[in-house]
């Protein structure tokens, strides 16, 4: 796909986004519980997705200060993959022919994205363990994910230990022999070349997960 066409498609996805977000006034309510005296001062009542935990650290002379406390994000669930506890799956489908290499990417809206329509370019699959346990039938292409497919590769990627507590993702690149084998592709997904993706990277429109899997496995 030419860069011009992916830009046109991406702008259309931003226009069609139904997500808007702003900082809420007043205390956190709804499905979240707040208890400043707890080791988990913020967490969902159903125990899903993630929680904020209080972490006390002793550095013993290897950091700027010797001790400190800080809040950190910890995923609430794991899934077992190859006998390893995984907090999330990030997978990118790739089709390689003699003429070109293409990746199946999606325009994904998240409330924290600082972009028009809160939309940013993301990999084929981006799902936490809680996403997979609650909404597996709503995650496009999760059923097509096959880590044992020929030429497919994966690694386990730890998350930033300065913000996330004991957290990792499985990053995977899955080879798709024929594009026509992937059916019923939503309009929010598109097969794109590396050059087309790079155009959006230069504009700050590609999320960290897609950048990670491209950098580690392409």
Mind explaining what this structure looks like?
There is one protein chain. This protein has 218 residues and is an alpha+beta fold. The strands form three sheets. Strands 7, 8, 9, 10, 11, 12 and 13 form a seven-stranded mixed beta sheet that branches. Strand 2 and strand 3 (50-58) form a beta hairpin. It has helices at 3-16, 129-135, 194-201, 208-217, and strands at residues 32-34, 42-44, 50-58, 67-75, 79-81, 84-86, 88-96, 101-109, 119-122, 125-128, 153-158, 168-175, 189-193. It is globular, with a radius of gyration of 19 Å. It has four helices and 13 strands. The chain folds into two domains: 3-19 and 77-217, Alpha-Beta Complex (Nucleoside Triphosphate Pyrophosphohydrolase); 32-75, no CATH class.
Produce the secondary structure layout:
Blueprint: H1 3-16, E1 32-34, E2 42-44, E3 50-58, E4 67-75, E5 79-81, E6 84-86, E7 88-96, E8 101-109, E9 119-122, E10 125-128, H2 129-135, E11 153-158, E12 168-175, E13 189-193, H3 194-201, H4 208-217
Helix pairs in contact: 1-3
């Amino acid at each position: 796909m030419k860069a011009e066409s992916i830009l046109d498609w991406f702008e259309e996805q931003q226009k069609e986004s139904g997500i808007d977000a702003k900082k809420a006034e007043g205390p956190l309510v709804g499905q979240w519980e707040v208890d400043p005296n707890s080791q988990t001062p913020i967490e969902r009542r159903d125990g899903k997705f993630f929680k904020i935990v209080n972490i006390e650290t002793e550095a013993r002379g290897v950091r700027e200060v010797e001790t400190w406390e800080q809040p950190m994000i910890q995923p609430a669930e794991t899934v077992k993959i190859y006998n390893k506890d995984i907090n999330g799956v990030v997978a990118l489908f790739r089709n390689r022919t003699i003429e070109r290499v293409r990746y199946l990417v999606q325009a994904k809206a998240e409330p924290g994205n600082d972009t028009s329509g809160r939309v940013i370019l993301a990999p084929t699959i981006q799902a936490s363990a809680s996403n997979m346990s609650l909404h597996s039938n709503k995650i496009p292409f999760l059923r097509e994910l096959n880590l044992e497919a020929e030429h497919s590769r994966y690694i386990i990627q730890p998350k930033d230990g300065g913000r996330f507590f004991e957290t990792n993702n499985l990053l995977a690149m899955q080879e798709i022999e024929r594009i026509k084998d992937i059916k019923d592709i939503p309009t929010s997904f598109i097969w794109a070349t590396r050059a087309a993706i790079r155009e959006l990277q230069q504009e700050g429109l590609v999320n960290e997960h897609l950048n990670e899997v491209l950098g580690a496995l392409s």
